[in-house]
Amino acid sequence: MIRFQYIESGGERLAVSIHDPAVSVDRDDVPVVVICHGFIGTRIGVDRLFVQAAERFASAGVGVVRFDYAGCGESSGEYGKNRFDDFIRQTRDVIRTVEQFPSFQRRPLVLLGHSLGGAVATVTAALDRRVERLVLWAPVAYPHADIVRIATDGYGRSDGETIEYRGYRLSPSFFTSLVDIDPLQAAKQFPGDVLLVHGIADQEIPVMYADVYGEAFGQRADSRFAKHVISKADHTFSSVSAREQLLQITTAWLFQRAVVV
Known about the structure:
Layout: E1 2-9, E2 12-19, E3 32-36, H1 49-59, E4 63-67, H2 84-98, E5 109-114, H3 116-127, E6 131-137, H4 143-151, E7 163-165, E8 168-170, H5 172-176, H6 183-187, E9 193-199, H7 209-218, E10 225-230, H8 240-254
Parallel strand pairs: 3-4, 3-5, 5-6, 6-9, 9-10
Antiparallel strand pairs: 1-2, 2-4, 7-8
Helix pairs in contact: 2-3
């Protein structure tokens, strides 16, 4: 069953979709997954990526929560006025709400982040001990450089101006807030299990970031990190084959402990 509600965060209303597990699994370690979408994304995902993921996870007995960051999808606000700290606060407010759902209580919490949402999820996980495990799909490693490059179509500079990109007005403070964000440093501080999946054919976020993240997570005392690189997969795993591999890998991992690869 899918439920919908709004939650309050920083004066904005965030649209949230909740997928209850479709089957009951008699295990205490079956998690609930909170999905963090990427730059100017939505809780639906490109080509329904996050809807399909939620349906697959729920069918296996995993609860899932999808939400729109402020200014995206059906949430209120203006996306380009967000700062990175706002994304973290909104994520933590969603986590706080998830904890109140009776069917999700006492379940391990997994943050799943795609693209910029991967950086948000990593930093949030390092700050919030309620997050026990982490899934990263094609994560941004250098938020300021990566997002400026994307938003300026490769020009690579924002010059302190408001930038219009795909119908969004991105304020100077939006870009400034990304300058000191270091998800790779945050990765070293997260003690939980991690799964990272990236596509070789990703033209937006380089697949080499999988190795960069691997090195960061590998510096932890207990390096529980699993990495999978999918051949011919683009940034949103849009082909039928790539998406099926992505969902198979992730669903299987949710039911096991990560191993070093």
